[in-house]
Amino acid sequence: MTTEEDPVAELLLKVAAQDRAAFREVYSRCAAKLLGVLLRILGNRAEAEDALQEVFTRIWLRAGRFDATKGRGMTWLIAIARNHAIDRLRARPDDPPRDDTDMLDQVRDTAPTAENRLIAMGEAGRIADCFATLEPDRAEAVRGAYLNGLSYADLAARFDVPLNTMRTWLRRSLLRLRECLDT
Amino acid sequence: MTDDLPLSPLEEDEALAAEYVLGVLSLADRSAAEARIKNDSAFAARVAAWETRLADLNGAYAEVAPDPALLPRIEARLFAAPARPARRPLFGWLAGALTAAAVAIAAVVLLAPPAPAPIVATLGEEGAALRFEARFDGQELTVTRVAGSAAPQGQVQEVWIIAPDAAPVSLGLMEGDSIAVPYPEAPAGWTIAVSVEPAGGSPTGAPTGPVVAAGVITDL
Q: One Pfam match, by short name (chain B) (predicted)?
């Protein structure tokens, strides 16, 4: 991966050199996407905007650790946003299992159906194909965890199985997913 | 299915990296995984590979335009800006109540002749091996290590401000021997503390490591 194909990566290298204009450019290109990530996981606009400030603080402080040979700039930024949002969720003092079905319904709504899966291929890449090799429930669990920040406790409540069973399912599914994605 | 077979140690690592990226772990398990990322490059590479594998899902996140006031707030937090009496508070949730006081104090400070910033808090007893001083010049709160040394390799000293009965808020990482943070005022009775955190700072937004020094802000 060269930075020529990845303008965000190129900007991050400048941010690592304390370039404030590049930092503003990263913000103007990426803040809306990152706020979308934070809002979906945290479910609250005020907290998501607060989290966005923290995320950009981390981007400024950690840009030196971004390695353009290891991945795309946007992937790195979204990982920072997701990690921060999930840390906030898990740190909530009364983090009850989110066993209502809203979160997973939301996943179903955005999950590619058989027909639009073909359309989404360009963007969804191999992952849509590989999800199709998993049992539908398990694919849904992986997707729900990734996009909405569901915990094992949330998933166990939703699928009405013991937490350890959920964990065994999900770990096996992840390893199968890797096998599919890496071939 | 082979659900009942135990995973091999390599599969365990692979699954843990995937679980971390997916986000399903508890806070304690996440912190343990983050510690491994910092100390175990093979594990860190597994995590990075999973971030790339699952990145195709990122297309499902919608874009949501942030409040236009956010970027100036972030810049004020990160970069020492020239003083403006009506500067927006930096930490929304704690600073709301301070706005009026900040305006008043900043106005007074702007009229005052330049003077060395007074010490508003000392962290650590006189003669302690590790000691910090906090100074406030009307615009910036500066915390300086005046005795002792930086955290060991792989760790960092993180500075926190704590309102009475409130959760600590990070002021930043002590990458050198001093940090300066634009701040509307030095609130008397609040505590400034330094904890030792993994490199890069607390993964949770709250102190996770031992508090090595603390002091209360006194009236100027």
A: RskA_C
